[in-house]
Amino acid sequence: MNQLPTSIIIFGASGDLTQRKLVPSLFNSFIKGRMPKNFRIVGYGNTAFTDEQFRVHLSGGIHQFAAFKYSDEEWNTFAPNLAYQQGRYTDLADFKRLSEFVSKWENGSGNRLYYMATPPGIFPNIIDLLGLTGQLQENGGWRRVVIEKPFGTDLASARSLNLQIHKALNENQIYRIDHYLGKETVQNILVTRFANTIFEPLWNRNYIDHVEVTVSEQVGVEHRAGYYDSVGVVRDMFQNHLLQLVSLVAMEPPASFDANALRNEKVKVLNSIQPLRGEVVASNTVLGQYQGYLDEEGVKAYSTTPTYAALRLQIDNWRWQGVPFYLRSGKRLAEKTSQIIIEFKEPPHLLFPNARAGMTPNMLVLYLQPDEGIHWRFEAKVPDTAADMRSVDMEFHYADSFGKTSIPESYERLLLDALAGDASLFTRADEVETAWGLIDPILESWDAQKRPPSIYEPGSWGPAAADEMIILDGRTWSRWQGH
Length: 483
Description:
Dihydrodipicolinate Reductase, domain 2; Rossmann fold; alpha/beta; 6-stranded parallel sheet; 9-stranded mixed sheet
């Protein structure tokens, strides 16, 4: 990171994301001594704030969401770095004033990180106006733009958005953020695989029976009902979060930890997933809607928007041929959890006389939240028996080993990476488009068939049809419990 003054300009600075996530994450990094030596955070939005009012507004979020206790002195040292500019997102004159404001503080060359904490429809206009006012020109300092999801609502809109922003920005200036990739436990997938020699030789079709990826929530749509009803669970969770997890589990070892090397391997995985189109969609996907969804405020009457989905995917490459990947996600389910289960094949021969037919397979569980850790299930002999066996669990928990506050907010890591110019945990244009290319045919098929989602009871694990889909393969969903 060069020593030029660094400006972090947040569009949509009066909103919830800035108060709850962005500024608390930047404050945590400041307390840890990880921010640039000379920096300023400039909020931009329609709300009328003075600098002091903006600081008071943000202090509430800091008080509630900072990762650790802090002193008044620490806040008073950080707060002068916060400034605010009121303006519209469609007014060239307002953007010129923003440019003059930031340039005056820089007093020469400076680095700028622009963060789009606004509705996605506004992104292109903001970037156009930044370009027209010369704020994206790299004259000595760098210029980077962080774009929040959703990045498009289908393949066509994602391509259109890429074309629009590429008119003003090079790909290496664009940081498409998926907060899931900032989670310590998601990054630990790569460490588990590539820093431990015991796993990689087994990480293939010869030893792994199947892979399950579950991201479940106990809450319903809550205050997001109006937005959620227009997108549904597949666009909201599968196109980004779940396919990102699949790519990390299934990717080949990159040549280095360089951003492009890592993202190249992820794109290869997405390109290898067998597309689901036409008639095969019905037998490989299940869509559900929790009972009571239609009563949520903001949901259209007779809405068929899914709040649950389960998918069976196949990866057509040498490593994973014939190994199904089962993905599921939904709202109002039995518990809040995010986990990846790697279930290994049974031994080819039951050697022990008391071994039961269909013995319990070995299982590796990567627990992403809330009980972050790794679980390894294997078979052990029951003492004082001839050869009876039972499953035992070897566990690692982040909270036990590093403390309950050891895991930082995902935005903290991602913002620091964007400031450092490390795009490893951000998605590239071809990655976004390839993921949409997998999701679009599924959505189109369900729309064409006009099949309503299966209704499931809140507090359950989703519709019975999801269990039936996996039972047809001779398997069941794992009901893994953490601590």
